[in-house]
Amino acid sequence: MAITKGAKKAHEASLRKRVFNERRKRVMKNTIKEVKDLVKKKDSKSAEELLSKTYKAIDKAVKGGVIKKNNAARKKSRLVRSIRKVVAK
Questions:
Q1: CB 3.0–4.6 Å: which of 8, 10, 52, 71 could bond 2 by disulfide?
Q2: pLDDT tens-digit readout, 51-80
Q3: Number of domains in the chain
């Protein structure tokens, strides 16, 4: 438990920030899941349309410091690769 006044304030601020970070992470994960589900259903057209929304969610997560830049790049790359694999078939 925080003892000093400054430590208590910092703890409260971190709890407020946590809400935003969790929301960003949840949105990112959900959009990624949606794209993966569409890929499993072999609906590449819908997956490609949803890709820009997913990119936006991933980029916002990076901007907020929820995930790192290379992690985001890897996620984007794998999503596009999975969509391209369905298109090729």
A1: 8
A2: 999 999 999 999 999 999 999 999 999 999
A3: 1
Segment 37-59, tens digit of pLDDT: 999 999 888 999 999 999 999 99
Dist. CA 37–CA 78, nearest whole Å: 14
In sign, the C-alpha dihedral spanning 87, 52, 60, 26 is negative
Angle, helices 5-40/44-63, rounded to nearest 10 degrees: 170
- Amino acid at position 8, single letter: K
Q: The tokens of 80 are what?
A: 């596009």
- CATH code of residue 64: 1.20.58.110
Furthest-apart CA atoms within the chain: distance in Å: 62
